């Protein structure tokens, strides 16, 4: 078998297993995340550059030091924060550099610099150091990237590496260089895992931890390696209660379950370091020819994903990156409705799987998002203290497990029913989480704009009886509305310098009408797990009415950045209270997927969708009780006068323009492959691919503003041109933020 387990390769690998990833970056502090194979004391230093253009390293102005946290025997991670050493702050209009140094703790060896601890170059400059810029003083120069849904075996080439080329293009220009990246959900896929990938993840996870987890079943336990790739559907459904395989789907056949597997997934999604040089072939794994063929097909997709990982690792080191989970970061349909919570958290394996996923999320994503919650005395710091102890117990200490669950926000189990405890919040049930649990939502602010990153997963409101347990939830409970939206907006309500309010909503407020129809039909049939019924704002109309009311009570215009849906688009929503003259505007900019295009999204990407364009639609809104009704004809009459009205209009996708031509790495990747047949040739035709509404191929979004003449917000969606495989193109959406 042409396969070498990690234990055979670990010694030869560099110190850095993944990262560095530039995380929360403000004028007073800079946070960098990194994963290592040895325990180290890590020092972060930030430097000015000559003329502020990034070319020559000058004085150290920020510094910070921290020890790594032992996740396992061979996995040590940290997010280290640097602050000013002389009262200086970071300023817009300058390119800054940073360096890391690593002093091993348990052995006498020399300190390593960042370049010595890596095998690849992470810089856009000759000096070899990563760099970054702060958002500009003028909002017209602001450029924000967004993306979501990145699955290794997803159809098409990963779009995230495009960002590497865009940063490189203007690396020394603080105004034209991209300023921030928001990854809006499904950064990893815990379900729908390729069989060869799980084969590697189990080995890598167990090796890095230094122990094999005993996954609890109803009456026994099992080690991860006993749950073979492609063979997990039944245990996922029956023992864990997971719904990724419902109805009769294969997405759970290699579902992640162990702590080590979740940790290894992040490392392999963000770096090429731990990937094996060779995988076993399908014939070496399966005697069945059909299964062997499927294995080889998935392996081919993984090879494409690996090809661009060095570009991904570089871009993540050079742009402040903010993340928030959606369902696939833990499992498909995660906390979708009350039924899911009861069936999964009420089973030992289901609860352990969710806890493993959330613990990995806290270490690999959240720590860098919210470093202030991981400082002395805070819940995050207390969680970090438990991580090495959990590993030392090899995942077998129930007291530590209970404490970890509390900080992660998992509800306790009712000893009488064996089900997760809930409590009432207004007209909804919510999970009974600890007051000390980490707050996953957060806010990013600069002098002239703000970004509210919503957690629409763990603070959902589930309708109380007589509603069924499969009823669509409110993605935010009453308390969540207050904590995540009302309070943050109130803090800056009187700040006249704030020119734009952005909200990161992992799932869409507005979807294609066909999706609404399908989900409404499935809900009537009681089949909610196959098509994410209730996972957007479209089916719980009272929740949507509340969301719009809460947003527009404090802001005239709101920009929503979203993902999840596997296509990119722009929608303009107009909202007006019956008692007000002012018109409120909400613009939804969607970018999805980075790497998970499907046949149906590739179809709506084309001119074929133009035969069935999205209609202009209107709704009436009532506040007490919250209710929404679509106005389907002028003759439709309602007994009560509505409190507000809103309408939606889909923005036209402009013809594509070439962003980057004859890209060298794309040439190498494609090797000038020709179309296989006449149908493929027709499908790749430029005219056909120039649809007028959505981008259904893998895409990356870049947001910018034009407030000089009109108050416009612009989204450029970058994608690979099928008719010119070596070109990267972009489609533009321009939306007016003022009254038409």
TrEMBL record:
Gene3D superfamilies attached to this UniProt entry: PhoD-like phosphatase (3.60.21.70)
Record InterPro entries: Metallo-depent_PP-like, PhoD-like_sf
The protein's name: PhoD-like phosphatase
PANTHER family: METALLOPHOSPHATASE BINDING DOMAIN PROTEIN, PHOD-LIKE PHOSPHATASE METALLOPHOSPHATASE DOMAIN-CONTAINING PROTEIN
SUPFAM superfamilies: Metallo-dependent phosphatases
Organism (species): Aphanothece hegewaldii CCALA 016
